[in-house]
Design brief:
Layout lengths: L1 E2 L11 E8 L12 E4 L5 E2 L4 E8 L4 E6 L3 E7 L4 H10 L15 H6 L3 E2 L2 E2 H4 E8 L4 E6 H4 L13 E11 L16 H8 L6 H15 L7 E5 L5 E3 H8 L7 E3 L10 H4 E4 L1 H7 L10 E3 L6 E4 L5 H19 L8 E2 L1
Parallel strand pairs: 2-5, 3-5, 4-19
Antiparallel strand pairs: 1-2, 6-7, 7-12, 8-9, 10-11, 10-12, 13-18, 14-16, 15-16, 17-18
The structure holds flavin-adenine dinucleotide.
Flavin-adenine dinucleotide (FAD) binds next to strand 3, helix 2, strand 8, strand 12 and strand 13.
């Protein structure tokens, strides 16, 4: 038995029957019982013990695969720390990942969860990935359309493939994304203006993101959290307008590629910022036993210390039920519940 406490950022205790660390993609994975791949454990809630094998992905490294006058294609191993990859790209003056600085986790999981932050998305610079098919033990290359990336989703959520490496196409020409949340006080632009002068560089954007995140978001090294617990729901514009009359400063974003179906959906739907709605219902910083949400961000569920996974899950379920009761919206978990 292995206690998973050091292996999940929500800092809950749960026992794994077996625990192995993969230090190379060639290492054999035992498939005789249920198994679960694990990176940093920044997107997982263990509500109970795991009656199987936890396979922790450790192998890391970054290499340049191809370089042209304008672009560099890099390959990162699945266990590579994501923030260190972003820092590496910024240090090499390559653009495409800088807004995703400080997202905790590994490269493999970044593709699994199709991570994004401040208007940048891993799929926008994604080129391909290599994965091991667990049933056939064969290595397969997946290109973007194969991966079925949608909002925090991909083909790889089912745990049928072990992602071994991911390649990204980064630009030598900065394509800076600074407009995200432009209508909000929390916008990237004012922070950028505080710390740098135009023309902004890739490093300026990276530094502004780090400043914003460290000032506003809880530090997972100190506090038990898995980031946003729920996905922002997609609702009709009609419903959004109705909600706006009840909630001042309600915020929503264009759905962009979220529905990945009919472009005309852009006119019908928006992605609702559900943190503001939770705030309105009194969830921001609300303590119940050993669980709370961040005083700055109601979507961040916090383990105040010693909470069990089940207690955290019950707290999150109360949030979900409250949103359902007051606004008839079904929230989906962004965190994987085990
Ligand atoms: C403080 C905080 C802030 C956050 N901010 C953001 C944010 O801004 N944007 C965002 O998108 N997310 C954010 N997150 C969520 C989290 O950082 C990401 O989901 C991250 O990609 C998780 O990486 P991980 O290595 O910890 O994944 P884990 O939690 O270990 O695993 C996540 C999933 O991926 C699977 N998996 C892991 N590695 C592999 C592999 N090699 N092959 C196949 N499957 C694999 C696991 O089985 C699991 O299903 C935040 C989390 C925290 C704690």
């Amino acid at each position: 038995m292995t206690d998973l406490f050091p292996y999940n950022t929500l800092k809950v205790h749960a026992q794994a029957k077996r625990f192995i660390e993969l230090n190379s993609p060639d290492q054999k994975i035992p498939t005789d019982e249920p198994f679960l791949f694990l990176g940093l454990g920044a997107n997982i809630l263990f509500t109970k013990d795991f009656d199987g094998t936890i396979v922790k992905i450790n192998f890391s490294g970054i290499k340049v695969v191809k370089e042209t006058d304008s672009e560099v294609i890099i390959e990162a191993a699945a266990g590579q720390n994501w923030h260190d990859l972003v820092t590496w790209s910024v240090d090499h003056n390559l653009s495409g990942l800088e807004n995703m600085a400080l997202i905790p986790g590994t490269v493999g999981a970044a593709a699994v969860g199709n991570i994004a932050a401040y208007g940048q998305n891993q799929e926008d610079v994604f080129e391909s990935l290599s994965a091991l098919d667990i049933t056939t033990n064969k290595s397969i290359n997946f290109f973007k359309p194969d991966c079925k990336f949608t909002y925090r989703e991909s083909l790889f959520k089912k745990n049928a493939f072990l992602i071994t490496s991911v390649t990204y196409r980064l630009s030598k020409v900065p394509h800076l994304e600074t407009s995200y949340h432009a209508t909000r006080h929390a916008s990237l632009l004012p922070t950028l203006q505080q710390i740098a002068k135009e023309p902004y560089t890739i490093k300026d954007v990276y530094n502004a993101i780090i400043k914003m995140r460290t000032e506003k978001l809880p530090d997972w090294h100190k506090v038990g959290t898995a980031g946003s617990f729920f996905k922002n729901p997609v609702i009709t514009k009609q419903k959004y307008t109705k909600m706006q009359s009840r909630i001042p400063d309600l915020l929503a974003y264009p759905i962009d590629k979220l529905l990945y179906t009919d472009p005309s959906d852009q006119d019908k739907y928006v992605k609702l910022s559900v943190a503001r709605v939770l705030d309105e219902l009194g969830w921001k910083g609300k303590n119940i036993g050993r669980v709370s949400t961040s005083p700055n961000q109601a979507l961040y569920v916090i383990n105040l210390g010693g909470a069990t996974g089940q207690e955290i899950f019950e707290y999150a379920e109360m949030m979900r039920q409250d949103i359902k009761k007051h606004f008839d919206i079904d929230l989906e978990y962004e965190v994987r519940i085990i």
